[in-house]
Amino acid sequence: MPNDPEPLTRWSAALVSRRATLRTVALSAGTTALLAGCKDDPGGGPAAGGDSKSTKGPDGKPEPSTDPAVVAAMSAAAGQVAQVAQRLTAASKLYPALRTQLTTAAKYHAQHLAKLNEVSGAGPATAPPLPALPKGSEAAMADLATREQKLSVAHAIAAAKLSGPNARLLAMVAAAESQLANSLTVTAKKKQAAR
Q: What is the pTM for the complete model shown?
């Protein structure tokens, strides 16, 4: 029949939905628009008559912020990323078949966590224990994708409240989480289509 939906093939199951693509584009465009006016140098730099003092330490790494709002935002983000990293590790141990798909996400979160801890100036983030993973690998993937998407939105909102390199870092983390959520969703859909 002409109105019947086309059966899922190997290629169509791997495509990201239009809604997911538009959500990612909107989130990225919104974050980019918010950050377009941000400057790294709060004093405007020597050319603008501002202070020529650098925010980098003697080893070339950025010095942690002393602004309580920035420290709080970055520490909260680090704690959230640590929670998701714990969840990814637990899922890959509980469901070995998912390990290859979750390894990339775990690597990204480890890098983000290290950077967030570096710029927050606080100690390493600790994550409170999370509830048990859902039963079944598909439910676990759906849970992980949902958590990634929620964190993406939370970090994009936090980025909009900051400026400079801290805002860019949170925006980068938000974009990565949005992409990870989409890839985890596509992986779950591929598994369903294979049945």
A: 0.65
Q: What are the boundaries of each domain within the chain?
A: 70-195
Structure tokens, 93: 């141990």
Q: What is the b/e burial string over 33-66, where b = at least 16 CB atoms within 10 angstroms of the residue's CB?
A: ebbeebeebeeeeeeeeeeeeeeeeeeeebebbe
Tell which CATH architecture fits domain 70-195.
Up-down Bundle (1.20)
CA-nearest of 71, 105, 108 to 91 is 105
Contact criterion met (CB below 8 Å) for 120 and 75: yes
Which amino acid, 82?
Answer: A
Q: Cα(first)–Cα(last) distance of the chain, in Å?
A: 23
Whole-number Cα distances in Å, 84 to 61, 96, 130, 158, 185: 26, 18, 9, 17, 16
Tell me the pLDDT tens digit for each residue of 147-165: 999 999 999 999 999 888 8
The strand pairing partners of 56, in sequence order, are 62
For residue 32, the one-letter residue type is T
Amino acid type, 72: A
